[in-house]
Write a structure and sequence with these properties.
Number of strands: 3
Radius of gyration: 15 Å
Largest sheet: 3 strands, antiparallel
Number of domains: 1
Shape: globular
Mean pLDDT: 89
Strand content: 5-15%
Distance between the termini: 36 Å
Number of helices: 5
Order of helices and strands: HEHEEHHH
Structural class: alpha+beta
Length: 127
């Protein structure tokens, strides 16, 4: 007999989404992604303010320079909030449950990195 599955659907409030998106981007920018992410152009929008992020503004991510500083980065364009939503939805169920639970919603650097990579590339490319 196969092991039964528990399916969970969670719809955070906009305030919760703002907190989640801010935690993901701040953690990613302050350590989670700096081993592959070279630069982000935000058009003057703030990637460290959740209420701004849920406005889903366009970003251009420069990556893959590998620290050489020779300008050989590749670029990918996306929407800031969509990256977070798509990235979280691509995570394993255990991590989704952890992020969706207010008492365990601490997003560490590794998780933020996974969310950003899944949201941008559809898979974990680095790490």
């Amino acid at each position: 007999m196969p092991i039964p599955t528990i399916k969970i659907e969670y719809t955070p409030s906009w305030d919760s989404w703002a907190e989640i998106a801010e935690a993901v981007w701040v953690t990613a920018l302050e350590g989670g992604c700096n081993y592959w992410l070279d630069n982000i152009h935000t058009g003057g929008n703030n990637l460290k303010q959740g209420q701004d992020i849920i406005g889903d503004f366009p970003i251009t991510v420069h990556y893959g320079d590998e620290g050489w500083g020779d300008g050989e980065s590749e670029t990918i364009s996306a929407l800031a909030f969509s990256v977070v939503v798509d990235g979280i939805n691509a995570l394993p169920a255990e991590l989704k449950m952890q992020i969706g639970n207010p008492s365990t919603c601490d997003i560490d650097a590794e998780q933020a990195d996974m969310i950003i990579q899944f949201g941008l590339f559809g898979e974990q490319v680095y790490g």
